[in-house]
Amino acid sequence: MRAGGTAAYSRASGDPALFDEQPVSPLSPGRADDEIVLAGTTLIADRFGALYWPDEKLLLVADLHLEKGSAYAARGVLLPPYDTTATLARLAQLIGRYAPALVIALGDSFHDGGGPARLPQPSRSALMALQRGRDWIWLAGNHDPDPARNIGGRFAEVIVLGALTLRHEPSADPCDGEIAGHLHPLACIAQRGCAVRRRCFATDGRRLVMPAFGAYAGGLNVRDGAVVSLFGALSFTAHMLGERRLYAVPAARCLPD
Amino acid sequence: MTVLERASILPEPFTRWFASRGWRLRAHQLELLAKAQAGRSVLLIAPTGGGKTLAGFLPSLVELSGAAQAQERPAERRRRISMGREARRAGGLHTLYISPLKALAVDIARNLEAPIAEMRLPIRIETRTGDTPTSKRQRQRRDPPDILLTTPEQVALLLASADAPYLFGALRRIILDELHALVTSKRGDLLSLGLARLFRLAPHLASIGLSATVAEPDDLCRFMVPQDQPGGSRADLIMAEGGAAPHVVMLDSREHLPWASHSARYALGEIYALIKAHRTTLVFVNTRSQAEGIFQDLWHINDDNLAIALHHGSLDVAQRRKVEAAMTTGRLRAVVCTSSLDLGVDWGDVDLVINVGAPKGASRLLQRIGRANHRMDEASEGVLIPANRFEVLECRAAIEAIAENAQDTPAPRIGALDVLAQHVLSCACGAPFHSDELYAEVTTAAPYAQLARADFDAVVDFVATGGYALKAYECFARIRRGKDGAWRVANPNVAQRYRLNVGTIVEADMLKVRLLRSRASKMIPRGGRLLGQVEEYFVETMVPGDTFVFAGEVLKYEALVEEEVYVSRTTSEDPKVPAYEGGKFPLSTYLADRVRAIISDPQAWRQLPEQVREWLEIQKWRSQVPGRRELLVETFPRANKSYLVCYPFEGRLAHQTLGMLLTRRLERARLRPLGFVANEYALAVWGLGDVALRIARGELSLAALFDEDMLGDDLEAWLAESALMKRTFRNCAIIAGLIERRFPGKEKSRRQVTISTDLVYDVLRSHQPDHVLLRAARADAATGLLDVRRLGEMLSRIKGRIVHKALDHVSPLAVPVMLEIGREAVYGEAAEALLAESEEELVREAMQ
User: Cβ neighbours of residue B486 under 8 Å, at least 6 residues apart?
Assistant: First the structure.
């Protein structure tokens, strides 16, 4: 906002079509705007920051960072102890929406090695309830490299399913069909002198980095070298998470920090 | 008081010193001295140039000189001071002086040194600010001076140390300078809690308050003393004889008065002529970007090479001190400045104050104009320069208010809970405390006099374990209650962390701006001249190559390296204007009422410039002029959209909140609102649905649209996602010590250690909406960035008094706010729309 005594707010530049209840993305005619095609596989990118693979009835989430609040509290920063509850509640909504047969958490599911032990009983019960009637796999992350007890599910380092490879940390080399987490990508755009910052999926159609799912998970700008180097150039798209849909913005149009 | 009595209270060295200067004590100075010597706390209200500072220190100087003579000879005293580490004097501090500005404390100390040296008084006087070296600070705790000049934050730090009882136990006097400026913010809350503690530590303490004229001196009198009596306690009040009334006029420009500008560029030639015709001129503006703009423009026409300088809060401190020093020695003809120069030491040579733009408040304007001519018997000269037509009305209202000596300083604060949390931790860092005792002490601070015990306990609970309904953090407590019932800090880290985070001023995250040194390769060489700081969010919107005006120059953004912005000089003529904030006071309720009175009374228009009169005449003919207590609502079609413009005159912040809530309601009424724009006086909302038609058909009632119930569910729903509310929450979280401040030099690691308060807000709001920090943020929203209280008062005022005019096209009064559409940046509330727009722009590009 420019200093000087006035402020403005605008819902849009005036296109009435933008105000329909279910806006249609003009970018992808004939394709729902929540679809991402990765190495020939069609996935649904959910505005909560999860991927759903309909053919496999598979739900993917990354970087839950459960018990981050209590990890901070142990260091004297008493963040509200509700992050695990909030993260699991959103996960429950997703599971209700897609009824997946398999859920895979792409690593850093707990903020630290002590997380599973600190998990309060109500959260542990909630987590177990989510796993009932479906398979559940915890992938290894850098925050949680080892299998933990009393959290259900199975543990794996990497999973290859069809054309897709699922792992926590993106590999340094080009890797077709890789879905990873770890980087917590977020994108920033500026419009009319105002910056908007959102978590996002980053993909060039060959590989994909998922947004962090945890309530307290921070983010890394997609223009950061760590993200850009994965794609070799600014040739990827940031699918920014919105209130009702995703917004696709080419990386070249996103602002660096 | 008789002449004889007056003479007798001033000791001999003083009378001689005054006589040698040809000075005579003024009546208010003597009266203050007498009351202070009788052990009373006193508030002195005097105009600038009234010798306030000297009056404030005189009781301490007299007392200290007398004590020295009675008890010991100066030589012995000095020897004892220099005896080294273990030599603790029985005393501690005698007098504590607290100023809102550290620079002011330093200047005052310097000014006091002369009389102390000339009268050979055995008095040691020192300053303590954030800039004081650690070694000196440690020495001050061990071996305190007689008089310490400092800031509220330093007092809080001293109180949080184990030395506090020794340092302050014998404190006799506390001098609160510029008290009117201190009490209006959370710093005032912090100071009030510090005062409560000082009065308990020092049984013989009395306070002296120094203030400019305020609307309710009684509020300040209560602030200065412990509220330990039923009905409250008050300091005595001394009102100095008013000096000559200021001479304030509005520039009667021959140029065309703009409809909606904020730059006052039309009057530039006239401003320059005024500077030329005076010795030294202060040119006050309301925002930093206005300061930059006017400064640039003045130098464009500065054919006589007059020494014109720039001063605002974002400039590098060294640069600001340089300007102030040049001012003191009379080397400048003019300084273009913001509220950064509202307070400070007197500059005798200033003979004109120009205020560009809206005065915002009568008292504030009066204090600014008082910066000219610091001699009481000469009138201060002030010229008001409205930047647009509405501001003409505001200037007129302010001039009338000043003529009547009417004041519109804000009402006293209710103590903030986040500040209380900081204070509770501070107390625990000093010494163990019992809840009952601390509660009793805290409620002697005027802003906290009405604090409920339950709220106090909630704050203590917050400090201990976060105050969460879910008791998850007992093992991580910051303070713990021992078997004796006293609260103590859990470990030394807690105290260490408190000391780093003390204070209530939360700046936006700032980045340093450095001038790029010439470079041979593509590498950015580190270092380079420091120009100042800009808000991080401003930099976020720029890409390398963008140009902006800063520090009086047009600069090109080159790169961001390690949290520093590197820029180069450029010759670009069309810079992107800086969007950094600064000095956005809303129009005072009092002036707003006077503006409405002027508009509604055609008789009063005679006082206005011809162009403005004509504008209002046409408004009267085409639509109507708003009544003093009514709300005029105009509707008209324009370019296939339907517009609704209303004129509450309640300031931009309240209008912005009203705009948010109205668009929600219009959306529910399926009127498909598209946007709104607010300025200080009016609000315009536009959309696709025909509002006028719906009203005509009786399907929409303006009374219902503007009903107070919008402050219920609609406000709640908006607060859930409001970026302004999240910013408010962040400030509370930092002040209360939930999360830590960022420190220069430590930014590199901050992405790993700091956590976004937006995420914390979302989680806390959905899981514990009544948490003490959310309540603190809500209390701030009532008066701060959202100005909800003022909106509520307006809605109640206009109930049953809404006047609707259905027009065919835009009215003259609506033009200024309509001109803002598209010119102003969209505020951060419309994130979704911005995302959609960004995506849409690409589509347009792709289709071309």
Answer: B432, B433, B434
Q: How many CA atoms lie within 13 A of A237 on its CB side?
A: 15
DSSP class per residue in B526-587 = S---EEEEEEHHHHHT--TT-EEEETTEEEEEEEEETTEEEEEE---SSPBPP------PPP
For the domain made up of A33-253, give the CATH fold: Purple Acid Phosphatase; chain A, domain 2 (3.60.21)
Any A CB within 8 A of B659 CB: yes
> Cβ of B843 and A26 within 8 Å?
yes
In the block, tokens 């850093």 appear at A108
Distance from CA of A6 to the nearest CA of B (A): 4
Q: What angle do CA B816, B840, A34 make, to 5 degrees?
A: 135
pLDDT at B846: 61
Select the residue of A9, A188, A257 nearest B659 (Cβ to Cβ).
A9
Cβ within 8 Å of B, A 42-81: 70, 72-74, 76-81
Interface of A with B in 97-136 (CB under 8 A): 120
Mean pLDDT of B94-121: 89
- How many angstroms separate the Cα of B41 from the Cα of each of B225, B414, B443? 7, 22, 19
The more confidently predicted of residues B531 and A198 is A198
Give B723-771 pLDDT, tens digit per residue. Answer: 778 888 989 999 999 988 765 544 444 444 457 888 999 999 999 999 9
| B584 interfacial to chain A (CB closer than 8 Å) | yes
Distance of residue A26 Cα from the nearest chain B Cα, in angstroms:
7
Q: Who's near B237: CB < 8 A, 6+ residues apart?
A: B42, B43, B45, B217, B218, B221
Given A10, A15, A196, which is nearest B835 (Cβ)? A196
Pick the closest to residue B468 from B732, B761, B771 (CA basis): B771
Q: Which of B107-111, B513-517, B821-825 has the lowest mean pLDDT?
A: B821-825
Q: B777 in contact with A at a CB cutoff of 8 Å?
A: no
Of A26-30, B260-264, B542-546, B746-750, which range is least confident? A26-30
| Cβ–Cβ contact B540 with A under 8 A | yes
Domain ranges for chain A: 33-253
Domains of chain B are: 3-81+88-239 (3.40.50.300), 247-403 (3.40.50.300), 417-505+727-778 (no CATH), 510-569 (no CATH), 623-722+786-835 (no CATH)
Closest A-chain CA to B676: A9
Q: What whole-number distance in Å separates Cα of residue B508 and Cα of residue B500? A: 17
User: What pLDDT is stored for residue B107 in this prediction?
Assistant: 85
> Among all residues of chain B, which has the CA nearest to that of A122?
B470
